[in-house]
Amino acid sequence: MSRRSRKAAAQAKKTAKKPPPQQPARRRPGMRGWRGWGAGEAVVVQAADEWRGTSVQVCGMWPFAIGTGTPMVGVPIGRNLQSGATLCCDPISWFQRAKLISNPSAFVLGKPGLGKSTIIRRMATGLAGYGVQPLVLGDLKPDYVDLIEALGGQVITLGRGRGHLNILDPGEAKAAADRLTGAARSQILADAHGRRLTMVSALLTIMRSAPPSDREETILDRALKVLDERHDGVAVLPDLLKVIQDAPDEVRQVALDRGSIERYREVTDNLEASLIGLVGGGRLGQIFSAPTTTPMVRDRPVVFDVSGIDDSEMDLQAAVLLACWSAGFGTVNIANALADAGLEPRRHYFVILDELWRALRAGRGMVDRVDALTRLNRQRGVGMAMISHTMSDLMSLANEEDRMKAKGFVERSGMVICGGLPSAEMPMLQTAVPFSRAEQEMLIGWQDPPAWDPSTNKEAEPPGRGKFLVKVGGRPGIPVNVLLTSVETAINDTNKLWHQASRVGRTDREPERSDGTAPDVTETPTPRA
User: Fold this and answer.
1) Mean pLDDT over residues 409-428, rounded?
2) For the chain, which end, N or C, has fewer CB atoms within 10 Å of the first or last residue's CB respectively?
3) Nearest alpha carbon to residue 255 among 202, 217, 293, 228
4) How sure is the predictor about 316, in pLDDT bands with cuts at 50, 70 and 90?
5) Is the pLDDT of residue 374 over 70?
6) What is the pTM of this model?
7) Sheet harboring 76-80: ordered strands across?
8) Helices 366-380 and 400-412: crossing angle, nearest 10°?
9) Which 8-state DSSP code applies to residue 59?
10) Where is the composition biased (Basic and acidic residues) (predicted)?
11) Can you tell me the distance from the alpha carbon of 229 to that of 251, in angstroms, rounded to the nearest whole number?
12) Does residue 296 contact residue 328 with C-beta atoms inside 8 Å?
């Protein structure tokens, strides 16, 4: 290159544009804010509020940005504890519409005070809005009377001096049979006869602590048929006793008295004595020996309030619960027969068996009765909810055969809903439903006692109150927090008797506070006369 060329190249290099200086990269905060000392990084970021709407209400946002991981078919229960999404859940909707379970039943387990009855009351309330009738066939606390009254249902009170339930009353079976013809009519009448015979035998079993003999059941069966032929109106137990005492030829034939009235008296002596015990009082009182106080209807929600029966009267509790179940499912059968004939619309029922452990321990035959109900709920067109505290309640029955049957209640349930449970329950629970380690730790954490606030001298709300894990088979459980509306708060209060302070030791000079509590005193007041 010549000297002149080199000089031109150097001049061109000097006159060329210099590249602009590079700007430093702009710092951006992370998902939790600025990192570093004093920068203000947040350890926990509160989730944004989520709202739901139909495609009509939020049509501008269709299609949805993300999907939900929880079903939206059934009664709204609460929010998923992990995603915040709404969970809709009930055994009838998940069986009938969503096809998520193969059996329209739910079993609820959890320690006392954590809301087991509350979640079932929410399901019953929502199902009533869908047209399903709640049936509480034996409320032992009571927990459902306020709900059924709010739904415009029927409250049937039973107990000593509180009401009667005639086990020989066929209910609406005769009226329904008059509207039916052919096989349907015969089936309704045969079902009513079978239920009455079964209930008389069950009461005798409870009275004797042993079932009646085959001959005695045959005599009862024939005596009931004679009673239906000769008696006008609705018969009661004293009428059945009189038929056996009168010794009609039809009954004497099945008693095999060989033409001897003395032999007949000998054969029916024990049966007659047991029926006199049922009619005259005794352990079971006169609840079953008088006309039914409040007949059950089939087109409204119903609760049998048996809370007036003391827990010490286990035999009476067992007898009343069996009678309530017999009356309830008899009504369901009548409704199904009329619907099958096209005479009435199809009705579905949501049967609630709360405090199941008390019912199972009430007497012989209770486990078999519940076992039969849990196997036939699909055929009867009913959904079912069974509630108990722990698996230990079911596995503590005296008979090994009964324990295995009680365990089957959990295994056959379409869904298992668990609240807070102690760690000792996990091995027994695992034998019926598989739970992951994380799910077990969640349930154990929910059963912890509430914290104590020394400034107010009151306990905080238990950590597991209203929290449940919904399990369907081996699928991962759905943790949910049950949220109540202001309207539901009053009917879900099971501590009403503790809202008012005790009146023992108060004087007339001590006014009551506006909140119902007694004023503080420094001296022992003079008790009232």
Assistant:
1) 91
2) C
3) 217
4) confident
5) no
6) 0.78
7) 86-88, 76-80, 478-482, 467-471, 415-418, 105-109, 382-388, 349-353, 133-139, 302-305, 154-157
8) 20
9) G
10) 505-515
11) 13
12) yes
- The three-point CA angle 132-136-139 to 5° equals 160
Give me the sign of the Cα torsion angle 195, 198, 202, 204.
positive
Q: Give the whole-angstrom CA distance, residue 469 versus residue 420.
A: 9
| Burial grade of 47 (CB within 10 A; 0-12, 13-18, 19 or more) | exposed
- Nearest 5 degrees, angle CA 168-CA 384-CA 375? 75
pLDDT of res. 527: 40
For tokens 């108990």, name the residue. Answer: 388
For range 355-364, the mean pLDDT: 71
Task: In whole angstroms, give the CA distance from residue 111 to residue 465.
Answer: 10
SS (H, E, C) 414-445: CEEEECCCCHHHHHHHHCCCCCCHHHHHHHHH
Closest CA to 468 of 125, 126, 123, 95: 123
- Residue 33 DSSP symbol: B
Residue 26 CA, chain-centre distance (Å), reads 60
Inter-residue contact 236 to 290 (CB < 8 Å): yes
Chain centroid to CA 83: 27
Tokens 């009862």 locate to 220
SS3 230: helix
Confidence of residue 4 (pLDDT cuts 50, 70, 90): low
pLDDT digits (tens, 9 = 90+) for 426-462: 999 998 899 999 999 999 999 888 877 677 777 778 8
CA dihedral 293, 298, 301, 306 (to 10 degrees): 30
Q: Could you give the percent of the chain with pLDDT greater than 90? A: 38
Q: How far is CA 282 from the centre of its chain?
A: 32
Task: Measure the CA–CA gap between 153 and 132, rounded to whole angstroms.
Answer: 12
Predicted pLDDT at 27: 72
pLDDT value at residue 526: 41
82 or 480, which is more confident: 480
**Is the peptide bond between 527 and the residue preceding it cis, with omega within 30 degrees of 0?**
no
Q: What are phi and psi of 127, to 5 degrees?
A: -65, -35
Q: Which two tokens stand for residue 284?
A: 């079971």
Instruction: Note the pLDDT of residue 120.
Output: 94
Q: Between the CA of residue 155 and those of 220, 293, 302, 334, what are the distances in Å?
A: 32, 11, 6, 20
The C-alpha atoms of residue 313 and residue 158 are separated, in whole angstroms, by 14
Q: Residue 462 in 3-state DSSP? A: coil
More confident residue, 38 or 81: 81
Q: Which residues contact 261 (CB under 8 A, 6 or more apart)?
A: 247, 252
